[in-house]
Amino acid sequence: MKKTYLLTLTLLLSMQATQAFAWGQLGHYLIGYMAEKQMKKSTRKKVEKVLFPMSLGRSGTWMDEIRSDKAYDYATTWHYLTSNAGEYDPSIQEKGGDAYEAIQRIKEELKKGGLDPKTEAEKLKMLIHMVEDIHQPLHVGTGNDRGGNDVKLEFFGQPTNLHAVWDSGMIDRQGMSYTEIADELYRRLNKGTKAQYRAATMENWLQEAVSFRPMVYKLPENGKISYQYIYDNYSIAEERMIAASVRLAQILEEIY
């Protein structure tokens, strides 16, 4: 009985730790998968060579996985940033850096080239992850609640927080594989939509995230959410993942 209890507790703690990250595994996998479908064949081959043996989709989770390695503590704050009204203000960011600054810097380092294979692969995996992360609305935070992690909720009767609901809760509730979700979302892409997403600046990305805050934070007083919240918000999560895939493909084409 004691062993069973300890095993259950360990699994629960592991799930809670995972939920503290951005886009759960499904989210990262499907964004990478969709980006791969949009990239030029020549770009895709170059990216695959740098990331081998990881796929583009799989590499999107690497930056979360290395959080347990102290050697990468320097990148802890690169998963998010703070914005009051959609602007980028360096003075209110973490001292260790932020997603906005890190994306721009690493993108230029990769474009410049001259990196050894291990360094290039790691920087590319970080860039992929951060571009995906910054499209999760709560990764452009208010600076008041740790990107929704401090907003405690019950999601279908289970204790969680707002950030976890957006990372994985709503996506997991679809009961579909990442390829099934990605293929469904990919059908919605057309030339006009791609052009609109690609024309946006990073400042526009932040403005988009902030524009969704009223819906993201529209919560009942009792903190209990389920079907209605998904009905009202899952389309936003879908749109954000589509946008992330287009922009990730665009950035990788600029580099490679």
Question: What does this 3D model show about the protein?
Answer:
This protein is mainly alpha-helical and 256 residues long. It has one domain (18-255): P1 Nuclease, CATH 1.10.575. It has 13 helices and five strands. The protein has helices at residues 2-19, 25-38, 41-51, 56-59, 62-65, 99-112, 117-133, 162-172, 178-186, 191-199, 202-211, 213-216, 227-255, and strands spanning 81-82, 140-141, 152-155, 158-161, 224-225. A hairpin with a 2-residue loop joins strand 3 and strand 4 (158-161). The chain is globular. Residues 1-20 have low confidence and may be disordered.
- Unreliable runs: 1-20
Secondary-structure element string: HHHHHEHHEEEHHHHHEH
Side-by-side strand order of the widest sheet: 4-3-5
The total strand number stands at 5
Summed up, the helix count is 13
Concise account of the structure shown:
With 256 residues, this protein is mostly helical.
Topology record:
Layout: H1 2-19, H2 25-38, H3 41-51, H4 56-59, H5 62-65, E1 81-82, H6 99-112, H7 117-133, E2 140-141, E3 152-155, E4 158-161, H8 162-172, H9 178-186, H10 191-199, H11 202-211, H12 213-216, E5 224-225, H13 227-255
